[in-house]
Automatic annotation (TrEMBL):
PANTHER family: NEUROPATHY TARGET ESTERASE/SWISS CHEESE D.MELANOGASTER, SLR0060 PROTEIN. Signal peptide: none annotated. The keyword Ribonucleoprotein does not apply. The active site is at S65, D218. Pfam families: Patatin. This is Alpha/beta hydrolase. It comes from Desulfoluna limicola. Residues 1-21 are annotated as: Disordered. The lineage of its organism: Bacteria, Pseudomonadati, Thermodesulfobacteriota, Desulfobacteria, Desulfobacterales.
Amino acid sequence: MNSTEKGQNDATDCGCPAPEQSSGHKKTINLALQGGGAHGAFTWGVMDKLIEDGRLKIDGLSGTSAGAMNAVVYAYGNMLGGAEGARQALHDFWKQISDTSMIMSPLQKTPWDTWTDKWNMDNSFLFQMFELMSRAFSPYQFNPMNVNPLRDIVEKTVDFEVLNRCQETKLFIGATKVSTGKVRVFTTDEITLDAVMASACLPQLYQAVKIDHDYYWDGGYMGNPAIFPLFYHTDTRDVVIIHINPMEREELPTDASEIMDRLNEITFNSSLLKELRAIAFITKLIEEGWLKDEYKHRLKHMLMHSIRADKILCDLKVSSKFNGDWKFLLDLHRRGRATAEAWLEANYDDIGNRSTVDLKKEFLDIGGGHTG
């Protein structure tokens, strides 16, 4: 069985329709991919549907943490095997994550949660102990050998020397420089295994990643994901942000775990909100004619789009980001595909013509209600 046939059978197994055949002109977009552990399988589902739909061409990808992994796996698979190669590569990557997690990770659901198909792991004694240990000890103490099975998976999936020569997709991977607190963006020709692992380096779990003379932590602290490289280094005006961390929660968190979960979401959305505030300001300058004619060409009028996860992932807590169960990852994949399908139906005609998200209303004045 070749990879295309296998990819189609796997799509059928997870409830996905056979790939649609595209024809004619494709609209070009950039994708900005948030990080969020196992919830990155939601992004996999979104990307799988966008690729299968066949009407869009991805020019640039900016990603952080799990978003960075989705980005490099997509680009490498697409480079070697086109659209179906990219879909297959993403599928195989997430399957390998699940297989490795089931064997090596001590963080597993309880039998009751498994039987009832609950994806959060708050009831897991081992997860509770792990949380306490990570607050009392650093990874330099509880993991002195710096063991990270995810590193081996990424290394087996992507040949970075080949990826560095990729011409089909522009890649931008963000990490946080520990010494300065600034975001470092690695471009296609700079991306290495270390750069990807730096982008996903949660300092409570893993030792900082050294690249050249500097140390890096998870890129989500300063760019989740970084949007600005897509402005300066691609020719495409349309940017589609694929969110993992909910921007909005209706319920007030009142117990300790709920408060910590919401703080986690707010923290990993804060850098994105800052960038969106700047984008909204520049858009206002352009659209309301505040610029002199001689300066207009210096600013790029970006068209912003957003695939939100607020409602579709509202039942999941932060603990589920550590859940590698294959049924769970396929469920996230299914949710991502369904969300992308609805988004395409509602917004495809606007791509290339106008923004489909009101930045001020939906991200800067949150509280007035979000309907998407």
